């Protein structure tokens, strides 16, 4: 049997706000409530279970999503429509830019609870390095 990630819990200020924010960006659906969780399922079967907690206990995490190249422009447009800041790099030294790492496209942005989200179209190390990335 191979080991696969099945789900992870994402602590947030407001589970509905955070789940709908990410689902909207990625073009996914928010599932029905299950106990204290509000799930968003990804295409590879991993469920992100959003749970509202005391904001003082939230430790910002990083979540990266591999997305189809042809869907990146629409997702990026939805990020821009939210008005959140976005960056080409994890150090946040290239605000307002996207990266072209490995011959694809990528961008980092924060969700409503301060988690650092990333969408990429190519896994790191899978293609040609790009200048300035």
Automatic annotation (TrEMBL):
It comes from the Bacteria. Residues 4-122 form the VOC domain. InterPro entries: Glyas_Bleomycin-R_OHBP_Dase, Glyas_Fos-R_dOase_dom, VOC_core. PROSITE patterns: VOC. SUPFAM superfamilies: Glyoxalase/Bleomycin resistance protein/Dihydroxybiphenyl dioxygenase. It holds the Pfam family Glyoxalase. This is VOC family protein. It comes from Streptomyces pactum.
